[in-house]
Amino acid sequence: MNPQFVQIPCVKCGATVWISPAAGVGYCPSCHTPNSMPAGGAPQAAAPAPQGQAAFAATMVAPSGGAQGYGQPQGQQQWGQQAQQPQQQQWGQQPAAQQPQQPAAQQPAAQYPQAGQAAAPQQAMMHPMAFRQQKKPPVGLIIGGVLLAIVGSVGFTVLKGFIFKKPGHAVVKDIGITDAKKADLDKIITGTKTLAQKWRANAQFFSVTANGVNPDGTIDLTDGNVVVKYISPGNKKDAMKEFSFNGEDIVYDKIWDMQRAWNDDDVTPVPECTAAKLTKALKKEGWKSGKGQMIINPEDTDRPAWHVNVSGASIADFFDLETCEKLKVDFSK
After folding, report:
1. What is the pairing mode between strands 225-231 and 326-327?
2. How many domains does the structure of the chain reveal?
């Protein structure tokens, strides 16, 4: 059944405007100008609108309850709402004033940065795993770092040898020997004094036992060994210190007591007949090859002397520390 409409001429173009009594306002179908129902009633009784024109007028009616899409009849029930009875207007009455509805709050549109503008913190957080390509360091920087690491490692090793050296331990380089495979026996005797005087300031040479001496007076410390002893004259308790040479190492952590206190006049003199001189002289005795043993021990004889044993040359004799002369030793004393 068609709804009832009131017909009035358009105030602008004169075209017929169909107005719903419930709305009180209609839009001209020609110029779309809004037209209000005149006061005191309509000039013409309400009549059903033609089918096509009534449908068009229905779509042009402005809703009284706020914005409504064209084509939706006034008073149409929304899903989930209770049906309401439309209020009928009496002829000759002004249409009831209707309160405008407040427009719904709208969410602010998303803002996007313009060109050259930094992104907001919220947008920056949208991509926490954004990939950034790492720049490769220069090749020169890598090589420099490797060389620095190598130099630093070597430097630390050397520094560690000086700072963190164990008490009672040293190396042959500390006494001036650069090659442990061809160590000078004379330098071993004299160089040890530097270490001995760190123990006791009055330390003096006492004895030496060298095994594996070559015919030229040198010794391979990686194959043979040397033990040198220094004493502190005037003392019996902790009066003797032993220095043991093996390979590159010198170990001197042992201290011995003595049966008697030795005086300065009794100490063993550093031989003027050096190992190099004595081995040179012993070539005439047949020591041209092989290894021998050379000992100085003042407690073995009545006076300090070199005691040389070379099995391959049949040498087992004593020699003067000053002249390298062969001695006849009286072992009865």
Report:
1. unpaired
2. 2
